[in-house]
Every structure is written in C-alpha cells, then in structure tokens.
Amino acid sequence: MSQTKANCPNCGGPVVFKWAQSVQTTCEYCSSILVRTDINIEKVGEVSSYPADPSPIMIGTEGIFENKAFVVIGRICYEYEHGGWNEWHFVTQTGESGWLSDAQLQYAVTRLTPWPASLNGISMNPGTMVDITASYYTITTITQANYRAVEGELPFQFWDKTVCRFIDLRTSDARFATIDFTEDQPLLFTGRTVTFDELRLKNLRQFEGW
C-alpha cells in the first residue's frame, strides 16, 4: 500500500495514512480525529474512550478472505442494548476496501454495494424477504445503536454521529447484507458470514492467560 505522511495539526506528532484513499484517521499521540482534504489535515474532534473490548482483532491484524490478504487499518465501535460490536475497516493487497464485522464472536465480511432499485419502497420489517442483485435475503434484525468511538483510518468522515440504525439481512447460504442509515442516503453493504478460523488471522491482540 502507498503511504502518505504528515504531522498532526494538534500536537505535531507524525501521522501516516497507509491507504491512499483514507479520508480520516486518528493521532496515536493525542487522540485527535483528523480529516484529510486535498491540501491539508484538519482536527475535527477527539476520540472517545472505548468500552471494555474482548475482541482479539486490532489495528494491524492481518488475514485472508477469498484468497486475498488484508490488513486492518481502522474501526468504528458501536453499542446497543445487548452489548456492542466493532466494524473493522481493512484493505487488501490489491488496494480494495472492506469491512469485518466483529459482533461478540460472530463475524461477517462486507463491501459497499450500489443501491439496487429493488429495495426502493420495500417495507423494512423483520421477516420480510427482499431481492438484492437477484438473490433473496430475509430481514433478520433492526438495530438502533449508539456510535461510541473511532480508531485508525476510514474511507469517509465518521466522528460526530449519535444514534445509528442498521438492518441486517441473511440468506440460507450464509450471504449477509447490512443497510446502514447513518448517511442521508442509506448505504448497502453485502458479503457473507465467516468463521474466525476461516479468516486465518495473525497479529492478534494478546490477553493475559493466552
């Protein structure tokens, strides 16, 4: 991956964008949230404290999905009534961007997908079956979550959210989709569920007693 180097406008510490398309990152020295434009880097906020996190995944974790090596470079943390989860932003060796959802030992890999006309006007209720790119998905859960914190590099600005709404959909053959309502226009991410072992992860966070 190509890298872009700069200095934090808040503390002057070195900042490295490992992925050329990254728009936002966090300063590891002062916890500032930094947004990159064409001409400079601007501080837009500060990282909130993270809740206790049992995930072994961290920035720098590497893995393999569909025969492509990837490295985790950022994350968004959410909380909801039954706990919390991480959306880990990763990039592949060929420069593609994706997301690894890490929800209490349940994992899914997704990528941003163009919004299909088949979703327009659909009643979004649990149990509803919808057509997404010629495959039928069933709406399984609707989640109201609270944005908690960000870390590392992201492909878009994400730092001033509060309540976030998500709709998860699944097929009978492990395909997975999420409709994300954090933007004015909903975003669709599609992929599939995976197991921890399937991802062949390394550079994991170590816990006492491992």
N-to-C terminal Cα separation, in Å?
Answer: 32 Å
Rg of Cα set: 17 Å
**Largest sheet geometry:** 8 strands, antiparallel, barrel
What class do helices, strands and sheet pairing give? mainly beta
Spans of 5+ residues with little confidence (pLDDT < 50)?
none
Please tally the β strands and state the result. Answer: 15
Number of helices: 0
Rough outline: globular
**Arithmetic mean of pLDDT:** 90
Oligomer: single chain
SSE ordering: EEEEEEEEEEEEEEE
How much helicity do the residues have?
under 10%
Strand line-up across the major sheet? 7-8-9-10-15-14-13-12
Strand content: over 45%
Question: What does this molecule look like?
Answer:
By secondary structure, the chain is mostly beta strands. 0% of the residues lie in helices and 51% in strands. The chain has no helices and 15 strands. The chain has strands spanning 4-7, 14-17, 24-26, 32-36, 41-46, 62-65, 68-80, 83-92, 97-103, 106-113, 129-132, 135-152, 163-170, 175-180, 187-194. The relative contact order is 0.19.
Show the helix and strand layout.
Blueprint: E1 4-7, E2 14-17, E3 24-26, E4 32-36, E5 41-46, E6 62-65, E7 68-80, E8 83-92, E9 97-103, E10 106-113, E11 129-132, E12 135-152, E13 163-170, E14 175-180, E15 187-194
Antiparallel strand pairs: 1-2, 3-4, 4-5, 6-7, 7-8, 7-12, 8-9, 9-10, 10-15, 11-12, 12-13, 13-14, 14-15
